[in-house]
Amino acid sequence: MFDLKQVSIFTTLSPDEAKEISPYFVAGKYRKKEAVFSEGDPSEWLYIVKNGKVKITKLSQEGKEIILEIISPNEFFGGIAVLRGFPYPANAVAMEDTEVIKVSRRNLMSIVDRFPNLMYCMATNIGDRIKGSHETLKSIALEKVESRIASLLIKLSDKAGEKTPEGMVITMKLTKQDIAEMVGTTVETSIRTMSKFSKAGLIGTKAGRILIKDIDRLKSLT
């Protein structure tokens, strides 16, 4: 049984209230690279990641995929479209085999009507994430690749970082392709920049994950 109170927007609910709304949610599974929804699809569901990762993407004018956000366990996605009733504004794709729980728009509206404070929690969360997506697109448009990748690594360390004696490990498994798509560059440029950071002693690897060895020097590049 999934504990809804692990999700930030539901932390204000009591255990009994969380139990009351849990029957509204249904489970779903997606294979790696499978689309959860595509840009322009009707916004029928709000999704919460239970296990795995989902990337939110858009295509650039050149047809290049740009990752706006990575959704980790206990985070929701599809919220703004569902609340406003317009089509999904981006694509959602499983980055690995992923389990979700989801609630229909109709049932979500019933839940929000029953617990009005949830609307405030969702609006605050969505506002912060829209700001983050805007900053991502602004960075892609205005900043050099080195600065964009440095900013991304710092952002990911805040979101999914774990302190170790060697430095901060980003617990999220990311490929060079993922990094390239998140900063709007080519895989070759991503590899070259990460190699440069590694040779400079800024980053390394630990158990297949990115290790940030010197976050202060990395911040100086942003």
What does this structure look like?
By secondary structure, this protein is an alpha+beta fold. The chain folds into two domains: 4-129, Jelly Rolls (Sandwich), CATH 2.60.120; 143-219, Orthogonal Bundle (Arc Repressor Mutant, subunit A), CATH 1.10.10.10. It has eight helices and twelve strands. The chain has helices spanning 15-21, 79-84, 105-114, 117-142, 145-160, 176-183, 187-199, 215-219, and strands at residues 26-30, 35-37, 45-51, 54-59, 65-71, 76-77, 91-94, 98-104, 161-164, 167-170, 203-206, 209-212. A four-stranded antiparallel beta sheet has the order 1-8-3-6. The longest helix is centred in the middle third of the chain and has 26 residues, at 117-142. The mean pLDDT is 89.
What distinguishing features does this structure have?
26% strand; alpha+beta; 222 residues
